[in-house]
From TrEMBL:
Subcellular location: Periplasm
Xref: InterPro entries: ABC_tp_sb, Bact_solute-bd_prot1, SBP
Protein's organism: Vreelandella maris
Span of the signal peptide: 1-31
Record GO terms (molecular function): transmembrane transporter activity
Main subcellular localisation: periplasm
Assigned keywords, A-Z: Cell membrane, Lipoprotein, Membrane, Palmitate, Signal
Descriptive protein name: Carbohydrate ABC transporter substrate-binding protein
Xref: Gene3D superfamilies: Periplasmic binding protein-like II (3.40.190.10)
GO cellular component, one term: periplasmic space
Similarity section: Belongs to the bacterial solute-binding protein 1 family.
């Protein structure tokens, strides 16, 4: 698929028409409109100097917000998001700017990710309005399309929000809109931030002639970016056991975390099994078997996670993936990593003693670019790079490659319509072209293609270790969130860490842990179906049968391979990046 950046003529027409109309009226502005224009000009000059719009276009876009918000002036609204740098910027800068411009007093609350999910679930179930707008991961899209309480944004923009939808919103410019879209093509969630899990490595070590020669002598092939899990394991072993120490510091060939904690679930349901090749072909979501191993029928109804029902959660590919997670954490990571959570493990590679990490979130990019950390040079340039994660032996061309986290604005019918509409205006303000590039430069979580291809991001690219190149490549679309097959994310996500923590600690085998996980997923889906809680796409589980019946069929679930560790393969980083950039050439 050729991905390119090309503003639509319709969007340009809308923007030009909007600007012309407001400019025409500017000669007879009321005192209130004059005040709004003065505020808009000051906000652009003080906060939003970086934008793909011209200054005049920014001011006119902000004037639209001031005009659209008039019915809600003086209203107090509460929105909520998790504590990422991007959302802190929305809370501390964008909420204040929006409130000043529109007279709508918005408090953008920052709470823990788990608390966001719990509060959202509470609002959906109780019908009580707790927040007027949620920034909620699109991992919950399967929940939103089924319960009938989430606002269908496509319908709302054509009906009750027709006069309150920004003419220059430009939905075609969003890079992750498909992840908040249901099987019916309707948008339920509007992206406001996005980051991927990629491979991270010490570029300076990987290009050291002595280390390259030593690796080649031991393993018989070149040290480079691993393209399969065998090469990743070889490199992990090499740095941990054969190199062992650099500049007097003990080094490790792998980093991960294993503490029994809800964040351990993210480690695995964020596509770990599908990176090994467990699921079906298809992007953004494997069809019919997704990255959780849940199979759906032709009507998008889940029919099972267990291999005995046609799912793949406890399939041979999944067992292989979990065994590698256990082995690598035990053999090649710092000992303390086994007792760490996601938050504790995240900053560790920046400390300078980790050679590579197969599963690294780009949300940590900003922390990696601080000139004070051990993985930048004296001028603040990164000694590290990010690249596509290697794929496992069950992976096939046409499958998703990894995970992408997409935080998106989500609204519920339990919120009074006037407050919900006011919150919709604020949501659009946080993603408008006037504000989005500046927000990207603060949080490094892009949502607009126009921002990714901006001159500002071109200038920043050398400091970001491959982030800009990743998002400019059409291959970026192969990294996707949890899909629509998962019918109740808040209820089902905890099953992962509860069942796989004993695997990581060695209390049970990978097969035992995955068998229990698959059974629990099936049991939960069956129970929810019997409770008749779904408005649509309710689970209809297949009857259990001999797993071999399914393993003998084409596609997922896949039978165990005779050789799960083929010859390791690598590629030089510069060669890989050239291919990525050639594929992602911008077209006007």
């Amino acid at each position: 698929m050729q991905k390119h950046y090309n503003k639509s003529s319709l969007t340009k027409f809308k923007l030009t028409t909007l600007a012309a109309g407001l400019l025409l009226a500017s000669g007879t502005l009321s005192a209130q409109e004059q005040d709004a224009r003065a505020i808009a000009e000051r906000l652009v000059d003080e906060h939003f100097q970086n934008s793909t719009l011209s200054r005049d276009e920014q001011i006119e876009e902000l004037m639209w917000f001031a005009k659209a918000a008039e019915p809600f002036r003086g209203m107090d609204i509460q929105t909520v998001a998790e504590g990422l740098t991007t959302h802190v910027y929305e809370s501390e800068v964008l909420a204040e700017a929006f409130s000043e411009l529109t007279g709508i007093n918005v408090t953008h609350n920052i709470i823990g990710e788990g608390d966001v999910v719990d509060t959202m679930q509470n609002q959906m179930q109780s019908g009580n309005s707790i927040y007027d707008g949620f920034v909620n991961d699109t991992d919950s899209i399967g929940t939103h399309i089924r319960y009938g309480t989430t606002i269908n944004l496509s319908e709302a923009m054509e009906n009750e929000w027709a006069d309150y939808t920004l003419p220059t919103l430009d939905l075609d410019d969003f890079i992750g809109l498909q992840y908040g879209t249901g099987p019916d093509g309707s948008i339920y969630q509007l992206p406001t931030q996005q980051f991927a899990n990629l491979y991270w490595f010490r570029h300076d070590w990987f290009t050291d002639p002595d280390l390259m020669a030593q690796f080649k002598e031991i393993y018989g092939y070149e040290l480079g970016v691993p393209t399969n899990w065998t090469a990743y394991e070889d490199i992990a072993e090499f740095f941990t056991e054969h190199v062992g120490e650099i500049d007097g510091t003990k080094i490790y060939g792998h980093m991960d975390y294993g503490r029994r904690d809800p964040s351990l679930g993210w480690r695995f349901h964020d596509s770990w099994l599908s990176m090994a090749g467990m699921g079906s072909k298809g992007v953004p979501f494997g069809n019919p078997v997704d990255d959780w191993g849940i199979r759906v029928n032709e009507d998008s109804q889940p029919v099972g996670a267990s291999v005995s029902r046609g799912g793949a959660t406890n399939s041979p590919a999944s067992v292989f993936a979990m065994q590698k997670a256990v082995d690598w954490l035990r053999d090649y990571a710092p000992e303390e990593a086994q007792g760490m959570t996601f938050g504790e493990a995240g900053p560790v590679p920046a400390q300078g003693h980790i050679a590579q990490q197969i599963f690294w979130y780009t949300a940590f990019t900003a922390d990696m670019t601080d000139p004070s950390v051990a993985v930048t040079d004296d001028e603040g340039n990164p000694l590290w790079r990010m690249a596509p994660s290697p794929t496992g032996p069950y992976w096939e061309e046409g499958m998703k490659v990894g995970y992408q986290d997409v935080g998106a604005w989500t609204f519920f019918d339990s919120t009074p319509e006037d407050r919900r509409t006011a919150a919709w205006l604020f949501a659009q303000f946080t993603v408008a072209k006037t504000t989005s590039l500046e927000k990207l430069m603060h949080g490094l979580t892009p949502i607009r293609e126009s921002d990714i291809f901006s001159e500002q991001m071109t200038e920043m690219a050398p400091k970001l270790g491959g982030l800009v190149e990743f998002y400019r490549s059409p291959n970026e679309s192969n990294w996707t969130p949890t899909g629509t097959n998962v019918p109740d994310y808040p209820r089902m996500a905890p099953l992962w860490w509860q069942n796989l923590a004993p695997v990581m600690s060695g209390e049970v085998t990978p097969q035992e842990g995955l068998d229990k996980l698959a059974a629990d997923l099936d049991s939960t889906m069956n129970r929810l179906a019997r409770a008749n809680v779904f408005d649509s796409y309710a689970p209809v589980l297949n009857e259990e049968q001999d797993p071999q019946v399914w393993l003998d069929q084409e596609g997922a679930p896949k039978a165990k391979l005779d050789n799960e560790m083929p010859q390791g393969t690598t590629i030089p980083y510069d060669e890989m990046m050239e291919a990525w950039m050639a594929a992602g050439t911008r077209q006007e």
